[in-house]
């Protein structure tokens, strides 16, 4: 009997959790197979990227191997980048995989599917503003976060060793972050944490001062514009305490090597520029055969996560625009959305293979949490208790539990508990800042 072939493209939160859930079911049912495709060999939870960029988290230690997860959970993994889609016949085209010297590791290949799930996530949206691609760092993936961290160390060392204490100048690294959503705010706070720790690495002759100056630039009237106002106010209060400069209602005109030029003519000088001002789905989606996309290249899907033009193609996570009942706004692009969608779609795909129909997905908002390095703020939402603002240790515990729930799906309860114990022990012996 020919197995129904489920192909999942994208190994982020939604795609990987879906592959694991379906792989475990496929191992028991023996009626379908599951193939996960991703251009990388390892997975890293995207909300951790600001810590990788700052150097307070080692991406090599935190990343998990797709091949190991595939072996343990009953699915297959194939590295590759999708460059084409043919709905008739049902195939996707993968480009060749090459090594660092340009040698071919895997040739280009056509992959057949019966059910296709696109879970490619999102990438930064530069809105066509001049200079962004040339002068800004992005935090779309692990490689970009590692690159920013390396440049952060290089720039700091450059300043440290080219300014003599006798000159009465103090080496100050200026960082401008465009976009004060969750990513920008969390990165700003984490960089301040790094600055406080880096003072002990050769800055003693310069006296007490802040070695890193951080400026947050936001076009909206307040930071965290997409989150509740009370949460944003609390976050702003914490950022002011640690001397983060915040420029709201400030639109960017262009980015230069010297800094960020605003539409009112002000120049924000910066050695390093980070763009975190918006997201879009990959441009590739706009070229897919006959599928409907919105202005952000997101695939339009129905309530059951099926694309509007093809019942055999589904989309989840940031790359999908999913409607919400009784709302004009689509499901927000958050990790909790992808987590929920993966659970629902796993049920739907099994039902379809067994001859049933997909179930509808209804977004449940459990609130928003923002990590301000050593501080945490957020709001929790529930059907019975309503909305509650939280901060401090309780917010920290709940924020960390979101990551643990992701690990729980990936590794199961036993391995997750072991990882938690290892993390606790490692914090006592490892340096708190990655300096390479």
What attributes characterize this protein structure?
436 residues, alpha/beta, FAD/NAD(P)-binding domain, 3 domains, five-stranded parallel β-sheet, four-stranded parallel β-sheet, 33% helix, 24% strand
List the helices and strands and how they pair.
Layout: E1 4-9, H1 13-29, E2 32-38, E3 42-43, H2 49-54, H3 59-62, E4 64-65, H4 66-73, E5 76-79, E6 82-86, E7 91-94, E8 97-98, E9 104-106, E10 109-112, E11 115-118, E12 123-124, H5 132-135, H6 142-162, E13 173-178, H7 182-198, E14 212-217, H8 229-241, E15 245-247, E16 252-255, E17 259-262, E18 267-269, E19 272-275, E20 279-280, E21 299-300, E22 313-315, E23 320-321, H9 335-353, E24 367-372, E25 375-382, E26 386-391, H10 393-429
Parallel strand pairs: 1-2, 1-11, 2-5, 11-22, 13-14, 13-19, 14-15, 21-23
Antiparallel strand pairs: 3-4, 6-7, 7-10, 8-9, 12-20, 16-17, 17-18, 24-25, 25-26
Helix pairs in contact: 1-9
């Amino acid at each position: 009997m020919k197995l129904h072939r489920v192909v999942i493209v994208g190994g982020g939160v939604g795609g990987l959790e879906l592959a694991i859930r379906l792989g475990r079911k496929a191992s028991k049912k023996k009626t379908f197979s599951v193939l996960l495709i991703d251009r990388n060999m390892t997975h890293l939870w995207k909300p951790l990227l600001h810590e990788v960029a700052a150097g307070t988290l080692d991406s090599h230690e935190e990343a998990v191997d797709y091949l190991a997860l595939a072996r343990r959970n009953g699915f297959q993994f194939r590295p590759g980048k999708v460059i084409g889609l043919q709905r008739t016949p049902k195939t996707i085209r993968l480009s060749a995989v090459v090594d660092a010297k340009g040698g071919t590791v895997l040739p280009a290949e056509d992959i057949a599917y019966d059910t296709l799930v696109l879970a490619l996530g999102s990438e930064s949206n530069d809105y066509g503003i001049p200079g962004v691609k040339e002068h800004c760092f992005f935090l779309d993936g692990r490689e970009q976060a590692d690159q920013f961290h390396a440049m952060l160390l290089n720039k700091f060392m450059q300043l440290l060793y080219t300014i003599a204490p006798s000159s009465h100048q103090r080496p100050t690294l200026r960082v401008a972050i465009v976009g004060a959503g969750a990513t920008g705010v969390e990165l700003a706070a984490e960089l301040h944490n790094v600055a406080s720790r880096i003072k002990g690495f050769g800055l003693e002759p310069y006296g007490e001062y802040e070695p890193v100056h951080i400026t947050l630039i936001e076009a909206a009237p307040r930071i965290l514009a997409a989150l509740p106002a009370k949460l944003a106010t609390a976050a702003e209060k914490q950022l002011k305490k640690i001397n983060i400069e915040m420029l709201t209602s400030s639109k960017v005109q262009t980015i230069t090597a010297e800094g960020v030029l605003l539409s009112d003519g002000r120049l924000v000088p910066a050695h390093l520029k980070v763009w975190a001002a918006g997201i879009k789905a990959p441009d590739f989606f706009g070229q897919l055969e006959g599928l409907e996309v919105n202005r952000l290249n997101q695939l339009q899907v129905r309530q059951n996560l099926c694309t509007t033009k093809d019942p055999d193609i589904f989309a989840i996570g940031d790359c999908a625009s999913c409607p919400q009942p009784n709302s004009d706004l689509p499901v927000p692009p958050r990790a909790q959305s992808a987590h929920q969608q993966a659970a629902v779609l796993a049920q739907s795909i099994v039902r379809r293979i067994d001859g049933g129909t997909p179930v509808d997905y209804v977004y449940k908002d459990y609130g928003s949490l923002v990590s301000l390095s050593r501080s945490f703020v957020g709001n929790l939402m529930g059907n019975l208790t309503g909305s509650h603002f939280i901060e401090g240790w309780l917010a920290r515990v709940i924020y960390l539990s979101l990551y643990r729930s992701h690990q729980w799906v990936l590794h199961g309860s036993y391995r997750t508990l072991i990882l938690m114990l290892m993390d606790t022990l490692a914090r006592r012996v490892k340096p708190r800042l990655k300096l390479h």
